[in-house]
Write a structure and sequence with these properties.
CATH architecture of the largest domain: Up-down Bundle
CATH class of the largest domain: Mainly Alpha
Distance between the termini: 38 Å
Largest sheet: 5 strands, mixed
Number of domains: 2
Strand order of the largest sheet: 1-5-4-2-3
Bound molecules: glutathione
Radius of gyration: 18 Å
Number of helices: 9
Shape: globular
Length: 240
């Protein structure tokens, strides 16, 4: 992983860790409502790996993720970043797969190559086809370039529906009827799906058109790993 020291990150200038009572192996730069950070929180929880949250406020003061200090840690100016000792790793899918390779007790991917590819395909449909179009910086760009002509929320709802519809079709045929998840138990795909559905609900997508997705969300919502990763249960949650 990328050594943080390579970027001489003055970490102390960012928000201080909110759960600093004990030194943990992992630290996660996160924001309570970030769906990409939410994915990694679920993966860490499923694997039973404790971590310390380091909140990065994506909105306050124009966004802490854009500060020079934070860009020393992630030159992309995005959350999440996983820190392990002095090593920083970016991109939620790379982080989840790294954890999966290192901690095998609770696999996020099946063993069989074709099954692995199918799960990755569904996961990437969330990560590459839905999420990037709806990211905060895309929203800000649309607001700036198309004021009054394009409603950024309509844009988001459109791309979420466009993305969920084919996922739903694929799941109807493949979802595991006995477990209620895509496979025997939640894994990489659920780590990505559940945060995207959280966003969809937040912005008012009518999810009744996607009953299989909703049933997976309901099943996952019963598990502590998902409950503890939920935005409202984060130390930086702003619940007013
Ligand atoms: N592909 C990246 C996406 C990361 C990402 O876009 N994070 C969002 C929050 S969900 C972010 O930091 N946005 C800040 C911005 O757009 O300025 C990943 O999977 O880690």
């Amino acid at each position: 992983m990328m050594p943080v020291t390579q970027f001489s990150a003055p970490l102390s200038k960012l928000s201080s860790p909110m759960r600093a009572e004990q030194a943990t192996r992992f630290k996660l730069y996160t924001y309570w409502r970030s769906s990409a950070a939410y994915r990694v929180r679920i993966a860490l929880n499923l694997k039973g790996l404790p971590f310390e949250s380091i909140p990065v406020h994506l909105v306050r003061q124009g966004g802490e993720q854009l500060s020079e200090d934070y860009r020393h840690i992630n030159p992309q100016g995005l959350v999440p970043v996983l820190l392990e000792d002095d090593q920083a790793l970016t991109q939620s899918m790379a982080i989840c797969e790294y954890l999966d390779e290192c901690f095998k007790d609770y696999p996020l991917l099946p063993l069989e190559p074709l099954e692995r590819a199918r799960i990755r395909s569904l996961t990437l449909q969330v990560a590459c086809e839905i999420h990037p179009l709806n990211n905060l910086r895309v929203q800000n760009y649309l607001k700036q370039k198309c004021p009054g002509t394009l409603d950024p929320v309509d844009w988001m709802l459109h791309w979420m529906r466009e993305g969920f519809a084919p996922i739903e079709k694929q799941l109807v045929h493949c979802a595991n009827k006995s477990s209620g998840y895509f496979g025997e138990r939640p894994g990489l795909f659920e780590c990505f799906l559940i945060p995207q559905v959280y966003n969809a609900n937040r912005f008012g997508v009518d999810m009744t058109a996607f009953p299989t997705i909703c049933s997976i969300v309901t099943q996952c919502g019963k598990l502590d790993a998902f409950k503890q990763a939920a935005p409202e249960n984060q130390p930086d949650a702003e619940l007013v």
